[in-house]
Amino acid sequence: MSRRRIAVVTGTRAEYGLLRSTMAALRADRRVDLQVIATGMHLLRRSGGTVREILGDGFSIAARVRMQSGDDGGTDQSDGLGRGVRDLARAFARLESEIVLVLGDRIEALAGALAGVTTGRIVAHVHGGDVAAGDFDDSLRHSITKLSHVHFAATRQSARRIVRMGEDPRRVHVVGAPGLDDLAAAIGRAAPRTGLGREALVIQHAYGRGPDHEERVARAVFEAVLAEGLRPTIVHPNTDRGCCGVVRAIEALQAARGGDVRVVRSLSRADFLDALLAARVLVGNSSCGVIEAPFAGTASVNVGDRQAGRQAGGRSIVSVGEGRRQIRAGIRAALRKRPRRGRAGCYGAGRAGAAIARLLVRLPVGEALRRKRITY
Question: Which domains are seen in the chain, by residue range?
Fold first, then answer.
């Protein structure tokens, strides 16, 4: 009996961290031929060349597909999408992939879904049905939902949205957020938090506005963190439109404050989770502040509208505007919170990856699944 060929498309360090537990479960299953396809930021040296993290975790790379150049130009994303659809389709054909697994709302996932559908593969999507304004995140996420044949929703609310979009409820599975899987294991290994530290994890992304605007907002975030006497670890942003403005703000801060701040281009998933668990507060506009931070027992300050509409994973999130004073007030409010580690919420308790892998292996691949019909 031949093994089921499942291609997993990953384009960023963050999304790989969310897919990792599913990939590990698929790799461990003798009935599966896991085909890891690295694209997007993984292949950009200026973004840390994070394909090395995938290899470091013992995964083989079945294909490398270059998409964006990372220059933040006006057509970089659209050009990358076109290249991605073409070359991912060729990769799926060469590998004879049966199922294509994508996650989230980025152009790498959209390229994987488009290439999968147009070459006759079954497309499975993780984290559909969520809401988060971002740049064009919602539009891409919901487009991927309509292209996909199977849906792994993180929450019941997200599953209901997918069904309201006309997807067959029998194709929708509530599995929780896979980003909690490795975090649950890290919590089990971590020593209890002692005292009230002053470490802050700062993740500020651009989301489609001009570089000058994104630079001003990033400066406000960094200045507010330092003004509150915190010791920040700042992680470089994703390659979204306007990201060069955030990078300029980081470089200016390094030039002015030197050793007062720690800046990293990227963190391995293990190092990132350690930093999240050690931080007193997470500040910025990453989805991590809404999903993982509450489960980690780390208070978070959600800055601006990038995550607007996303379901909150706990009560330890303080949402604020993008002004320096607002961010400072949010930090002070967050520091007064005492969230508990490992508390299950709407995103589950950290067992999503195994559930997704189990469902993919049992999936009845065939024309009945491949041919979708809208349900209204």
Answer: 4-178+350-370 (3.40.50.2000), 188-335 (3.40.50.2000)
